[in-house]
Amino acid sequence: MFRQAEIAKCLSDLRHELDHKNLNREVAGLTDKPVTTEILARYIQQRAAESLPVNRVRLHERSDFFAEYWSAGTFFLGLQVPFSAAHCMNSEQLSAEENAALYGKCNNARGHGHLYLTEATVGGEFDERSGALVSFDSLRAGIAAALDPWQNKHLDLEMEQFRGRPSTGENIVQSLWPQFDSRLDGRLVRLRLWETPNNRFTLRKL
Question: How far apart (Å, rounded) are the C-alpha atoms in residues 140 and 9?
């Protein structure tokens, strides 16, 4: 078991090495590489693993975009994108009383809206020459295309996926998966959906 002081020293050393540096010119381990978020995540994991048993690192380039590097040599990229939609939690298999008891206020017949947040994570073959798993532009464009039919819709009234099927978070993320995966060249490995900041649903590729 590592003490907090050892973890703090590792982070402090990394910060001293990287913070406010020109990574291409001032960090010896990066001078001959394209300093992408993926490459930098790998570098941080490998440097941290010299003193701690660090298996993976997630590095955020911005609040909604990150790269992960796992010690087995695997890279991932993730991007969060929101969409707005309304729904009413209701199952045709249940009575009105059972729906009200199960879903509570979310069974309001007039429906209610959410600013949903999706997080798509892709994996696959890493291109060492470019330092990229996939291009940020293609990742963003693929997710935007997948979400476009869902934007500002009443899910129960306007989306075929919920005809006779309740629009629960579990069913929404399950319905989103093929839309995302087909537009991300089959590289989707994890899809998360936040209905609220405290309510998250996750699907992973087996």
Answer: 36
Taking the C-alpha atoms of residue 166 and residue 41, their distance in angstroms, rounded to an integer, is 40
Beta-bridged to residue 126, according to DSSP, are none
How far is C-alpha 118 from the geometric centre of its chain's CA atoms?
Answer: 7
**Token representation of residue 206:** 């087996």
User: Could you read off the pLDDT of 117-139 as tens digits, one per residue?
Assistant: 999 999 999 999 999 999 999 99
Q: Do 80 and 118 form a contact (C-beta atoms < 8 A)?
A: yes
Cα(87)–Cα(175) distance, integer angstroms: 14
Closest CA to 80 of 62, 95, 104: 62
Within the chain, how many helices (H) and strands (E) appear? 7, 7
CB under 8 Å to 18, separation ≥6 — which residues?
27, 44
Q: Per the confidence metrics, is the pTM higher than 0.85?
A: yes
